[in-house]
Design a protein that fits this description.
With 322 residues, this protein is an alpha/beta fold. The chain has 12 helices and 12 strands. It binds adenosine-5'-diphosphate, iron/sulfur cluster (SF4) and magnesium ion. The site of magnesium ion (MG) has 3 residues, from α1.
Length: 322
Amino acid sequence: MRNREILIEVRNLKKYFKVGPKTYLKAVDDVNFEIYKGETLGLVGESGCGKTTCGRTIMGLYEATSGSVIYDATTDISKLRKDEKKKFARKAQIIFQDPYASLNPRMTVGDIIGEGIDIHNLYSGEERMNKIYEVIELVGLNKEHVSRFPHEFSGGQRQRIGIARALAVEPQFIVCDEPISALDVSIQAQIVNLLIKLQNELGLTYLFIAHDLSMVKHISDRVGVMYLGNMVELTDSKELYNNPLHPYTQALLSAIPIPDPKVAKEKERIHLEGEIPSPINPKPGCRFASRCQYSQERCKKEMPQLKEVKEGHFVACHLVKS
Ligand SMILES: Nc1ncnc2c1ncn2[C@@H]1O[C@H](COP(=O)(O)OP(=O)(O)O)[C@@H](O)[C@H]1O
Ligand code: SF4
Ligand SMILES: [Mg+2]
C-alpha cells in the first residue's frame, strides 16, 4: 500500500517570466497537486509546457511568482531565507536530461560526487571517501571509477554518475528531469530500474518528468499531464492509461505506438493539429481550445479548473462531469 502522507503540497503555484514590458511568459500558471512520501509522480506534456519550470520552482531553484510549496507540512519553500534555502537544498536534488552537460568535464567523478558533501559540510577525510564509494556502488559503478573523468564513460554511465552525485547528500526528494530522454532505448530501462531500486532501498520520493507518456508508465504511481502551464489531468498511473478523460491526454495516449497490429488497427488515432500555442500572454479560456476537437463557445471564455471527477482522478475540462 502506498503511504498517503504528503511530502510536498503545491498550491496555486505560478511562475511567470517577464519577457518584455508588461509581457509575461506564463510557464506555470496556477497549478495544484501534492506528492506523497515514497511515491513517484510522473509529469508529462509536450516540450515547453512548463515541466522543468514546475520542478525547479518546487525545489526552490526558481522563486515562485505566487502560490506556495509546502514541504513536509512545515516548510514553505517559496518563502525561505538564503541560509534556509541552502539547508533545504540538501533534501531536494535534481537529475538532468543531459548528464554530460551537467558534469564538469575537468573534475574527476570522485570530486563531482564529493562537491555536494563539501558544500553541505557533511563528511570529511575518510568518511567523505567512504560516502563517495558507497554511492558509486549504489548506482552500479565501482570504486575505480572515482579517479576518472566524465568523457571516459558512456551515456548510461554518466547518468549513473549524475544519480550518485544527487544521492551523496542523502536527499529525500529527487526531481528527475527527463533523465532517460537522451539515452538509447536499450539503456533507458536500466536507468529506470536503477531509480526504482534506489527508491525502494532509500525511501526516496520522485517527481519524474518526461515528454512522452510511455516513458513514465513503468515508474510512476500517479501521473500528472501538463498543457501550456496548466495541469489538465492527474490520477493513478493505471487509471490514466486505462481511462484517460481529458481530450489532450487521450490524444497523447493515442500517439503511443501499440506493438500488436491488431489492437493498433482498432485503436482510433487522434491527431493533435498544430503546434502548442505560445505561453506569452495566453488567451483566456481553456488553453487547449485551439487544438481540441470538442471545443465549444464556453471553452474559449472560461478556464476549466482541475476537479476531482472520481476518487483520486482530477481533470480540468468543461465536458468531463463527476
Ligand atoms: N528562464 C527563462 N526565461 C524565460 N522563459 C523561460 C525560462 N525558462 C523557461 N522558459 C519558458 O517557459 C516555458 C516552459 O519551459 P520549460 O519549463 O522548460 O518546459 P518543459 O520542461 O515542459 O519543456 C517555455 O515557453 C520556455 O521557453
Ligand atoms: S474545456 Fe473545452 S477546449 Fe478544453 S479540453 Fe475540455 S472540451 Fe476541450
Ligand atoms: Mg524540460
